[in-house]
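Q: Sequence in, structure out?
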Amino acid sequence: MAESTSPSTSKTAFVLASIAGLSVSGLFYAWFYPAKQGWEYFDFKYLMVWCGGLLALGGFVPAGMLWAAWRRRDWSATGWSTGLAVGLGGLLGALAEPSLPHSLLWVGFPSTLLLLSLPIPLPPHKILRSIAAFGLLAVAMLLGGFGRPALHGKKAFSVDQRPPLPAAAPSADASEHPDVLLISVDTLRADTILESGVPTPNLDALRSHALVAPYAHAATPSTLPSHVSMMLGVSPFKHGTYTNLGLMPTSGFPTLAETFHQAGYRTVGTAANGLLHAYTGFDRGFEVLYNVAPNHARSGSVKKVAGSARRLVWYGLVFSEVQAMGFSRFLASRRFPLEDGTVVEENAIYTDQIRQLALAYLDDLYAAPTPYFYFLHFMAPHAPYGASAEFRGQLTAGRQLPLAYADFASGSTLFTNRVGQDLHDGKPEAQIGLDYLHDLYREEVMMVDAALGEVFARIQKSGRPTVILFTSDHGEHFGENGAMTHGSTVYAPVLRVPFVLALPDGHAGSFADIPRLVDIPLTLLRAAGFPVQHFGEGRNLLDPALQPSPFAGVHEDKFAVIDGGWKLLLKWDASQGSASSLEAFALYQVKEDVAEAENLLNDSRYASQQARLLDLAQAQLATASQRHLRSFDAVELANLNQLGYVFDEEGNALPE
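A: Exactly. Output:
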């Protein structure tokens, strides 16, 4: 029966009932919120979904009122249904997000309309008013900071709490062999440490008494598969890890750490990228592998929960990404003390923690004469870009950015994505943004160089002979070939990484051929004095008779073959392995065209070069393993997406 009250009173009852419905459904929305289910950050999640739902009610209330008038339904009952529908519909859209971009629009919106039309029982009016009042009071208290808890940030770091070295020393006698330090600086382009405008005095000193290549070929444009190749000495075609959703094979290939350990070495690794972790199998052969970064699949910081709102909360459908992030940050500030509103970049924290760990573990290792193999990984200069206070602003201070970028946090992933979109759209301000981001990146390189300076000083103080190899897993795009960041192309900026090998005798020079990351295991074993003849597909870069070798850089849906100064780019499908078809889409004469700007694919004068490289590509394809994927969930996908690695629920790369 329709209410007998006046239209104004009816509409008031409708609004109060809708707020009550939202307050109840918001509890389910917050509890099952995909980015962090359960009680952790429940108050913050509830605040986000309630505020987002209130905004959505502005659009759905008129539809509910029209429905009530047309169907002659009770106004309160329709308002109750509308509030419940907005919360539950938003939750359905959020849960569908990993497999369906813009799922709030394509799932949440129709689900809300459907739920709105269902006859949902109405509580007594007194209870309804109480629920509405409770919901409004709870949100007011949350916004007012009542009961604001301490920030559940990353676990407090203490170098004294690091995992100890096992008491039992390796059984084999390696006392006559040198220590070996393998340094991998994530996302470092080869040209960065050669630029005169980027002061890296410690790396300069290392290069002065080392073998140096102009660049080395990275196995892939992504972190995990390149590091797997670095440890196994085989390309992704052989080990089957083509993306960051893969894992280190558990058998079939010995790892460099296993080999050194069996030879009598202590084996230690410290890393700052969550992918280099036991859950990806990267700990094989290490006595200790300590990772200071949160596990990508299970991290749940306030920052990541806030960032997820632009995909999982109703206001993310209405606001721009910048507005959504700003509003989420405001809501977070009502629940957590966020350092007076400033942003502390993770990479600066991780760099300092890795420095501390390296110095502490080196002290532990130097307490005994047994030589060590140490894998030392730095996350910087990976995006989001932000150096420590000592280096922040050294290249960017006083820089004026266009108004279009004024609301972005400096170096943030959102800023980077916006500049990339502007680059794609041909907007003139994109170049200013690119230059600024590139200098933020360079400041992080300076920060890492300073940390390495302390590590090198500790090694020199030990007086022990040490082999040091400095390299990276992949590079970074800053507008070259129309691209940003990494993980989706096989152009030179992401496949060319630094390569410096310092031997105990201090011999300086160069290599007979361009190194590859797969050459690292055999080269380090030979540099350490072991007469190993073969290790995977790798070569001994110390061999004076080293012969040039073709190279294939692999991504999940494309790869590049380089040989004789020519480079062919092809499309393929890693999920099909060796059964995949090949489609060439670019040909470059890289000896002359370093920027890979002139595509010669359709130039008949170079048909023979193209045919030769295509034959090499077919030979590589014939060796391709099926794609190896570990178990992953919606949270890991969301976190990887925030770092710029974009996949669907089956591990397939999505177009950016």
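The radius of gyration is 28 Å.
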